[in-house]
Design goal:
With 366 residues, the chain is an alpha+beta fold. It folds into 3 domains: 75 residues, Arc Repressor Mutant, subunit A (Orthogonal Bundle); 161 residues, GAF domain (Beta-Lactamase, 2-Layer Sandwich), CATH 3.30.450; 99 residues, Enolase-like, domain 1 (2-Layer Sandwich), CATH 3.30.390.60. The protein is built from 13 helices and 10 strands.
């Protein structure tokens, strides 16, 4: 089963920014104060947090240098500083102290997954609710694409001349229905034999693996002379032509959009409209989350502010991790919130949920 070390973060590409210890301490103080209070941070506030007892004048000079390095910015000339996306990135990659989720919170998550209804759809919905409730942000889960599912059985139902309903049942309980059209009119009795053959021959394989094996078998001499085998392979090939435009993810489960209304960063109606439009157009969310599957190394991955590929998410941070069973990545889950979020907790939460959800899927598949 896929495992992660607690709170492990996949580091971003190295940044061309080098800070001495004093600058690191001041940047860390500004980021953590701004995350906690949501107000621009001035030199006096930082001086109270400084372990070196630095004067306000010295801190102002360092903060000005951090602003020149595009790590801090000043909303107004008379205001203190706030972190930029680059400032948050440097903080997460180099300065932030990692943490684990509290034991009672992990136990609550595990208990919620154990008592989830038996339908797989409800299990995914439950995970998005858990992420939303514990983070106070948006919880998102992408279910596995059908091509990643392992076959339990397949069935063919004749709908009419040349039209067949294909029912694919995965080991996980996921069901995929598809109507295919053929030049031949197969009787139902023959379709039943074909369904049993494909189920027995390929049970336990992923649909992608089955498709590759079918294409290989179709080129073999035996398939040319065995009519039932030839028809079985042809119907199997047609059944497994999964729509590529849907990408590598399946259904998207979202919970907690109302949480964003409480965030001062999203007080603009136009900004909220853009965000909600993105959440409704789930293929856009899917595209963003699929970036977290491009490199299937374990660990929590972050897209901070302008690192997000979708412009409506430029003021947000995505904290995501993959989940899976048997060493295979099946999908992605995570949270979306403002860039001013408690990163250490968010990373620990996503990491724990991904690990416990992977355990739950193993139990579910039995």
């Amino acid at each position: 089963m896929q495992r992660r070390s607690g709170g492990t973060v996949r580091r971003a590409e190295p940044r061309d920014v080098t800070l001495d210890r004093r600058s690191q301490e001041i940047l860390e103080a500004v980021v953590e104060s701004y995350i906690q209070k949501g107000e621009p941070v001035g030199s006096r506030a930082v001086s109270k947090l400084s372990s070196e007892g630095l004067s306000a004048a010295t801190i102002r000079n360092v903060m000005a240098e951090l602003e020149e390095s595009e790590l801090l910015t000043q909303p107004h000339t008379s205001a203190g500083r706030v972190p930029t996306d680059l400032g948050y990135r440097l903080y997460v990659d180099s300065l932030m102290k990692t943490r684990r989720l509290r034991k009672d919170e992990e136990q609550m998550i595990e208990s919620s997954l154990l008592t989830t209804p038996t339908e797989l759809h409800d299990l995914f919905a439950s995970v998005s609710r858990i992420l939303s409730r514990l983070s106070h942000h948006l919880g998102v889960v992408v279910s596995p694409h059908i091509s990643r599912a392992r076959l339990k059985e397949t069935e063919f139902v004749r709908l009419g001349k040349g039209r067949i309903l294909v029912i694919i049942v995965a080991v996980s309980g996921m069901i995929h229905n598809k109507v295919i059209e053929t030049d031949d009119d197969h009787p139902q009795e023959k379709l039943d034999k074909i369904g049993r053959y494909l189920s027995d021959e390929f049970r336990g394989n992923t649909l992608s693996e089955i498709r590759d094996r079918i294409l290989e078998m179709m080129s073999q001499e035996k398939a040319l002379y065995d009519a039932l085998l030839r028809d079985a392979l042809e119907l199997g090939r047609a059944s497994l032509e999964v729509e590529e435009e849907k990408g590598s993810g399946g259904e998207v489960f979202v919970d907690g959009t109302s949480n964003l209304l409480a965030e001062p960063e999203f007080s603009s109606i136009n900004q909220l409209k853009g965000l909600f439009r993105t959440f409704e157009e789930k293929h856009e969310l899917l595209r963003v989350l699929n970036r977290c599957l491009e490199n299937e190394q374990p660990g929590v991955k972050l897209l901070i502010g302008s690192e997000n590929p979708h412009p409506d998410l430029a003021g947000c941070t995505l904290v995501a991790a993959s989940y899976g069973t048997g060493g295979r990545t099946l999908g992605t889950l995570g949270i979306i919130g403002p860039t001013r979020m408690e990163y250490a907790r968010a990373i620990a939460l996503v990491d724990s949920v991904a690990r416990l959800f992977s355990d739950a899927l193993v139990r579910y598949e039995g």
